[in-house]
Design a protein that fits this description.
The chain is an alpha/beta fold. 42% of the residues lie in helices and 21% in strands. The chain is built from eight helices and eleven strands. The strands form three sheets. It has a five-stranded parallel sheet, with helices on both faces. Strands 6-7-8-9 form a four-stranded antiparallel sheet, covered by helices on one side. Strands 10-11 form a two-stranded antiparallel ribbon.
Length: 227
Amino acid sequence: MKHQRVLVVDDDPDIRRLVSAYLRREGMDVITAEDGETALMHEATQQPDIVVLDLMLPGIGGLDVLRTIRERGPRPVVLLTARDEVTDRVLGLELGADDYVTKPFHPRELVARVHTILRRAQAEPVAASTRIGSLEIDVDRRQVRREGELLSLTRTEFDLLATLARADGRVLSRADLLDAVAGPDSITLERSIDSHIRNLRRKVEPDPGEPRYVVTVTGVGYRLGDT
């Protein structure tokens, strides 16, 4: 059985050693990098199943590393951030990070988040195709097209859109969406769903300021529009 491979990127050697030890204890293969350039090299050549990425890196910064990873594909990414890095944390989610952990953290918390995201990534999708307006959602191929143009969505963004499509117009709360894309045992904050929704709208909506497809129901949650 293939072991899951994790790339841990942090310039602090103590954090790299500690996180690596906990991940290996869970039977995972671990690759480490201390800077952005090395991280991008390992991400391209070692093909990890998930990346644990510190935002504060020498040379190429964490957000730039995340941008490059997203340009290459939908590989899951968990950010490590300081408590006062709220702006960077939000930007990281908007760039497509799947989750974040704030420092200081307990390694067991990080391992739990890694497990949750990997389970979600490995889940077999239900074959289905949904069309709404000019938007076509192909769950089987995990593809979304708008007016025939293929859109580049992160794994979380696609899962959110597919979950809303399966709801067939019903309103889903943040907790509902969190359970669907991260699992009921997730410790991810419900409000992080809002960041993923904003990022999703930038990609699927003709006018993100006036969303037609991913509609907010004030005080309740979100639903798929009927346009």
